Amino acid sequence: MKHYRIATIPGDGIGKEVLPAARAVLDRVGRHHGLSLSYDEFDWSCERYLAEGSMMPEDGLDRIRHHDSVLLGAVGRPGVPDHVSLWGLLIPIRRGFRQYVNLRPITVLEGVPSPVSRALPGEVDLVVVRENNEGEYSQVGGRIFEGTPEEAVVQESVFTRRGVERVLEYAFDLAGRRGGRLTSATKSNGIVHTMPFWDELVAERAAEHPDVSWDQEHIDALAAKIVLDPARFDVIVGSNLFGDILSDLAAAVAGGIGVAPSANLNPEREFPSMFEPVHGSAPDIAGRGLANPLGAIWSASMMLDHLGHAEAGAQVMDAVRGVLASSPVRTADLGGTAGTDEFTGEVLSRLP
Amino acid sequence: MKHYRIATIPGDGIGKEVLPAARAVLDRVGRHHGLSLSYDEFDWSCERYLAEGSMMPEDGLDRIRHHDSVLLGAVGRPGVPDHVSLWGLLIPIRRGFRQYVNLRPITVLEGVPSPVSRALPGEVDLVVVRENNEGEYSQVGGRIFEGTPEEAVVQESVFTRRGVERVLEYAFDLAGRRGGRLTSATKSNGIVHTMPFWDELVAERAAEHPDVSWDQEHIDALAAKIVLDPARFDVIVGSNLFGDILSDLAAAVAGGIGVAPSANLNPEREFPSMFEPVHGSAPDIAGRGLANPLGAIWSASMMLDHLGHAEAGAQVMDAVRGVLASSPVRTADLGGTAGTDEFTGEVLSRLP
Ligand SMILES: CC(C)[C@H](C(=O)O)[C@@H](O)C(=O)O
Ligand SMILES: CC(C)[C@H](C(=O)O)[C@@H](O)C(=O)O
Questions:
Q1: Which CATH entry fits the domain spanning A114-254: 3.40.309.10, 3.60.110.10, 3.40.718.10, 3.30.1370.110?
Q2: Which of A134, A222, A241, A242 should one mutate to test binding to chain B, selecting the residue with the greatest count of B CBs within 10 A?
Q3: pLDDT digits over A235-255, tens only?
Q4: Rounded to the nearest whole angstrom, what is the distance from the C-alpha of residue B182 to the centroid of ligand 1?
Q5: What is the per-residue burial (b if ≥16 Cβ within 10 Å, else e) of B303-315?
Q6: Top mutation candidate among B55, B84, B86, B262 for ligand 1, by most atoms within 8 Å of CB
Q7: Which CATH code, of 3.40.718.10, 3.30.930.10, 3.20.20.140, 3.40.50.1220, is assigned to A1-98+271-352?
Q8: A-chain residues within 8 Å CB-CB of B191?
Q9: Which reaction does it catalyse (chains A, B) (predicted)?
Q10: Whole-prediction pTM value?
């Protein structure tokens, strides 16, 4: 019997509703595969910030450093500036644990309508590999002449060879194991220091991966093409900001943010990886049992995969696909009337 | 009789095919409105760069400084790095002439199919106002430890109070004259120096424009919403990079980049403004008479508007709408078989 200790951080709003759904699914499929999963729950959140002045304790990372994985619901709450919740919790974990790959699979599932008429189930199946540790998200920069007409701010993007190489290596490897195609998101025509550097490293990595056919697209044109012809993409790799934008966009093309999962991976497994749905805390529907748990359940399936239990992960996704393709049970964001529990129950009923 | 001197820069590829189409339309409608238009053509292009080592002469800006407008086709050519054509021609004009507003109207036209099923003619009619002079497009930055494992690059984004205020002022004004709604593109949760500053200035400007209802969205969520529900937007204002991405994306939602126009405006009219289609030089179809001139013709209509001839501009767009809505004549990118000339002829035939 394999034992795993999972740190769970439900966070705010619907995070607290989708996380139990993911756990229920994990427990069921785990039992079938002889996995023993135990959970330690942490109340790190905007609520905690309002009560105690910080999103997590100072030694937060140390408390979860030896867990096998982190499962996160969602963070964010009206009244707490978004950058507080991000830089007080998400970014320290992503960086502190060298989770330099943010993996976002985007698949049009049968039974989930897409706003894009050409985005058909079985045709759109891509993965966005987002650099998750450096780039445009940086603390470096500041403000000058505050409060005067000459006021100005600067913000530094920082890209390192090591940081870019490792995420590209991951993306080329992944493309080699998937459809053999990689698209790099760039903007080397407008952003003249970091993006030409990114392009150079892509070309270098490509030379080491002759099995992968690759191209690059400027981010503006790429965003357009994801809408015009989503089926043409296999693996898309982008910087922290570009990956963030493209993955939300592609998730919308695949039927909405409520469905999309993500994995923050430390591929070397020196530190725990973190799994979280792409959606936010959705204060407008929080507390009413209406949240779509699919993003969280899909993220849990990615966690099983990462822990080495690909078959268990696939069973979870088969159950989800089954519900969507052959039952009317779905949450309101997908046009249904089911609540979180009903949908989760339907998934559970299709698991061995 | 009003006389206007227009500087034309056909540029590369299909730029040289769509510019004559725009001129033909301008001449026809100008004659009807008693406008005398004369053109000075400049061969500034990647072709010139390959032959003479620069995209334009050193005193380029001085040669067109006293023209009433600039009409540009497209620049870019395989073999010339994109940043050369951009920083050697487009950016110097945009900055040198303080064209700090990049205006990109996005309308779903009847007869132009959209990839997004909910994007219907008469419902989607938005304008992206892009900051066009500063922000993420900057020369500031560089590389350290080149060629070593420690290699790193930094890129500085620079936002000034003056630069942000003036484009926001334009955007709020425009929203006041249109549907009264403004959406600001931000990413203040991830990009912690420039974007919170941007948000502050939006809130300041908003207080001066109580007639406009406004909100802000993070760029990732906004990209998704433009696909999920494009009809909800009126004026979207964004930084240089965000405006670039969102306008290409919204143009795709409205049926493709081949249709989209843009205006680089110096609202104070101290310098000429520049009008250019959003599409590139399309080397794959260049020289074959297949290019869609609609983006260039629409840009010419925006030029008439800017020069104070709104009625003439509207007549051009009425003619274009007429062709698309009630004839099968359209270019290959819109599913038709017409060439550049045939489409242009059809537009001309509907002008007074
Ligand atoms: C040529 C290119 C760099 C340019 C830009 O990003 O400004 C183009 O995409 C545009 O939108 O005009
Ligand atoms: C919370 C937010 C800032 C975050 C990000 O941009 O990384 C989110 O959009 C995501 O994609 O995980």
A1: 3.40.718.10
A2: A241
A3: 999 999 999 999 999 999 998
A4: 23
A5: bbbbbebeebbeb
A6: B86
A7: 3.40.718.10
A8: 136-137, 155, 241
A9: (R)-malate + NAD(+) = pyruvate + CO2 + NADH
A10: 0.96
